[in-house]
């Protein structure tokens, strides 16, 4: 699997006024979102897209991208990390993605509910990430097979905002499962340069 880097250019003319710079940045965000949306329909593009750029611009692009994907029913799930330790919990990643998958893809909801009924603690902190990923995300996606709508995307923003290696290991598990099981979706990860 290849990672397709997608740099966000954030240079503006040195002689610009504040209003001109804000308009330029807004247009640059719109262009970046448009390019990413168009690339979703290209079969030859990597299923893993890395969007990188300055923190503020990257977050604004990620938010605009998830909003647009949601409106066009192309957002399977998203997770935004924060430097705030209350919202930066690695144990929330897979339960959050599973919950959002069950909302955005109604055919998956009963499958995820069945997993939760069979093992009520599956969404808990003490459950290994690999088990959560396999049972809450990979299994249900594989179970619906061709009924899975495409193109669908998972957006994970702010990978560089997380503290410690636990979250990076969870994201690495997601990427490995995505490649191994050939999941019918694209993962878009944003981070600082």
Automatic annotation (TrEMBL):
Pfam families: NPHP3_N (PF24883)
Alphabetical UniProt keywords: Repeat
UniProt entry tagged with the keyword Repeat: yes
Nephrocystin 3-like N-terminal domain segment(s): 46-191
InterPro entries: NPHP3-like_N
Keyword set includes Repeat: yes
Full protein name: Nephrocystin 3-like N-terminal domain-containing protein
